[in-house]
Design brief:
GO molecular function, one term: oxidoreductase activity
Structural class: alpha/beta
Number of strands: 17
Organism: Pseudomonas protegens
Keywords: Oxidoreductase
InterPro entries: FAD-dep_OxRdtase (IPR006076), FAD/NAD-bd_sf (IPR036188)
Pfam families: DAO
Largest sheet: 9 strands, mixed
Distance between the termini: 51 Å
Shape: globular
Helix content: 25-40%
Length: 427
Amino acid sequence: MANIPYPQSYYAASANAAPERPQLQDEVETDVCVIGAGYTGLSSALFLLENGFRVTVLEAAKVGFGASGRNGGQIVNSYSRDIDVIERTVGPKQAQLLGQMAFEGGRIIRERVAKYQIQCDLKDGGVFAALTSKQMGHLESQKRLWERYGHTQLELLDERCIREVVACDQYKGGMLDMSGGHIHPLNLALGEAAAVESLGGTIYEQSPAVRIERGVSPVVHTPQGKVRAKFIIVAGNAYLGNLIPELAAKSMPCGTQVITTEPLGDELAASLLPQDYCVEDCNYLLDYYRLSGDKRLIFGGGVVYGARDPANIEAIIRPKMLKAFPQLQNVKIDYAWTGNFLLTLSRLPQVGRLGDNIYYSQGCSGHGVTYTHLAGKVLAEALRGQAERFDAFADLPHYPFPGGQLLRTPFTALGAWYYSLRDKFGL
């Protein structure tokens, strides 16, 4: 089987040294087999190992190959649909539990970085930037909503204050979340993988799960080996393929594009983002950006439904960057790449159990960096028999995309076109 390398991203080019991990060649036995070495899988593995389970992780390519190693690197709290939507959808008890958990993922990341001394350029502070007064009104209600759930590290920014945070004259204001922040996402995944191995866990790379034998003692087959386990955690997200057809029907992979400039130098970098916070705007199809550890601008945005790789990523994203920062007109783009995330119709994550022993979490809908770290903890709790928080997620209603797999892409793209028109005209 040919080795699958990392995509040519800035993150892969600046990744910390990591060992070559073996392919699974024989039969192994374990307590928990985790499918996927992204954040969901690594977070689950860490919590389980810390609680005495034997854990084997199977990765089809390399640690952090998927969205975990390609995303914008922003620590953003809550879910892709905020707690007010959850409150309207489910009962008060479930909403209370999910609301309390909405800010836990970022705390877990910081605990992991501190405990296992992970070098991933962690910086505090994330800004939601409003392009219209209507969006500013939404941020004001979001602040009140989050504060109701005890999240108090928030500050509203008026038009003058946001200029001190980001050198872009498009914004009417914003909200600063000091418990938000940013990281080098691939180095976070590599650090978590090293932590898994330091606790006795095993990670096999280039070892895709090709078939699951369900039953009392489930078996996961790879091209050259198999893992017998008491439990399986399915953490493939947008890269799971059709391994479990009933999960594929309720979700859709989508691509998002990211570019990275050449190093800007201290002076230019500091003039763009003086406090080194990360920023995302409040549009439905949003733009997001931040500085890297070596003072490049990492800028992402756009969504390709159905996850095809666009031919020229720079042509899609560079105009968005120049709209925000016309002063970068002559700056060279060193890297451009795409990565897939998994969208659900409700935009809320799907968590559940198949039979008695196969657990899954998927469908972060573009809000994965913090949620996946929480998901790992919630899945580990469920395997230990503490299912209250797991059940709060598992009971969220989910629906298949209309028209099935054939029509889900055009339907969703049509919906996004409608919302992007609303953004454009400030509706």
